[in-house]
Amino acid sequence: MKLSLKQLFLLTLLSGLAACTTAPPPPPPPLEEAEVAAVEQAVEEEIEYGTFSEEQLYQTIISELGAQRGDLEDAGDNYLDLAMETRDLGMILRAVQFASVNGDVNALMQLGLLWAEIEPENPQPHLSLAYQFLEDGNYNLALSHMARVIDLGGEMGFTALAARTGRLDPRNRQALIENLRQLAREFEEEESIHVALVQLLAQNRQFDDALYEMQLLLQNIELTPNMVLLHGQILQNMDDTENALRVMRSGVREFSDDKALRLSYARLLIQDDRFEDAQEQFEIIVEQDPEDWETLYSVALLDMELENFDSAIVNLEKLIRADQRFDESQYYLGFIYEQREDYKNSIEHYRQVRIGTNNFLAAQQQATRHSINLGELDDAHAWLMRQSSGQPRLEILFTTIESNLLIQADYITEAKDLLDTSLNRFPNESDLLFARVLFYDSQSDREGSERDLQQIIRMQPDDSRALNHLGYMLADQTTRFEEALDLIERAIAISPDDPAIIDSLGWAQYKLGRYEEALANLRRAFEVFPDHEVASHVGEVLWMMGREDEATQVWEDALEERPDSELIREVMDRLRQD
């Protein structure tokens, strides 16, 4: 007898569906020739379809085969329909599998409710629903099903609730807290309810209540590392660092092999500036696990903080050999040798920091600085060009860095030649033009600066950096105050929150005699960016307004932060002499 395709599908599924009420079957494997023959022989016998219609069986096998082809969403939709239609437990469980794989929260909730109805004494559907409601942010319903799991004798970790309520607003979290209090009274022996209550109280910044509940809890449960951590965090949030450290220290003694607890204790010691004690804890972790590279890296950083440079070098080199934190370790080795004024070794390690890593540009800048200071200008330049070969944007960036370092080292001619040569290679490149502006500024060549700034503005009328720089220069070094104000107003329209531009605006207004407006803007700039130059401007305007005591106070406060500020001392001397 020759089977139809539909009959073959149905027979293939029968053996799987026979067990459907006990456990969900996996997708059936492809039929071998012998299996097909067996099916053809079996078809002659009468088929018992049980409680399923032929169409339902057909849809089931279609779904399974579709799943084998990767059509998981269609299979999931089909199984959801079949589960709701047949109310068969096996169908429900298979539908749950597909809904889980597909992340179909709506289907999981429907199936969970149906499952709970079919098996009212089984805690598993309530467990599933609890997690789905947690994921959906419906915490009250989640709590209700969590309680039902416990009521039916299942196990439920209530700390899963606290793990998801960190961003909940305090009022809604308070409602959950009250529900947890009720559950804690109903299920006094369920530890995780009490732990979750402590966690939610801490999240709601009710630290006194959290500490009280914690102390009650500790009288009735066996201490765990997680409980030590939670206790310490509550005390820390109450600004009781000493007791937090005491709790953590005691916990580390009791759970000496718990790495997470010891790490937290070490970090708390660092926050309290107890670097040597923290280092001792990190070293214990490394001793327990010599290949814990992150902790070894922390030990090296603490060595640097404590200026134990020999030990830091040993640990950083160990990380480099293991190819762990390679670039950071090379960078910090460069820094250590820099502190020791061993610039050759410093350059070597800085140059090992690879492109694309966080410290790459800073490392290349420091290596170039030291090479230039050693008089190795050609070597410095050649290295940067090799690193940026085939990358024009990086070459331009390196040129701006190199030219600035040459200026700082008083290699004036070399800096100008570098910029001119690079501008011949990249004509009208705004970053290079701006770098040459800074060169002209260093030489007090206002005409050169203005010429390049005007060129940038012609090419890029919305370049707020160039507009502001030219506007401030005109306000500070010329009497072209109206022109300066116009440029700065154009800049601030583009970048309204830039404190440097706000400072320039106030300075131009001051030069035009608009003192009240000037003071308001200069104070606004200083609030965001309390720089000594801005402080000198605020003080000067106050002085010119006759508010000399206020001006003096501003300057003196700024000098406390920046005792070497020539700007502030110059303006104080100049105005007091007038």
Fold and architecture overview:
There is one protein chain. This protein is mainly α and 578 residues long. It has a domain at 1-120. The protein is built from 33 helices and no strands. Helix 19 (326-339) packs antiparallel against helix 20, helix 22 (377-387) packs antiparallel against helix 23 and helix 31 runs parallel beside helix 33. The radius of gyration is 36 Å and the shape is elongated. The model is unreliable at 1-50 (pLDDT under 50).
Enumerate how many helices there are, as a single number. Answer: 33
Please report which band the strand proportion falls in: under 5%, 5-15%, 15-25%, 25-35%, 35-45% or over 45%. under 5%
Distance between the termini: 118 Å
Assembly form of the protein = single chain
Arithmetic mean pLDDT = 86
* Basic shape: elongated
Give a count of the beta strands, DSSP E runs of length 2 or more: 0
The largest sheet is:
none
Provide a compact summary of the structure.
With 578 residues, the protein is mostly helical.
Task: Give the SSE layout.
Layout: H1 5-18, H2 33-42, H3 54-68, H4 72-86, H5 89-102, H6 105-118, H7 123-135, H8 139-151, H9 159-162, H10 170-186, H11 191-203, H12 207-218, H13 225-237, H14 241-254, H15 259-271, H16 275-288, H17 293-305, H18 309-321, H19 326-339, H20 343-350, H21 360-373, H22 377-387, H23 392-408, H24 412-425, H25 430-442, H26 446-459, H27 464-477, H28 481-494, H29 499-511, H30 515-528, H31 532-544, H32 548-561, H33 566-577
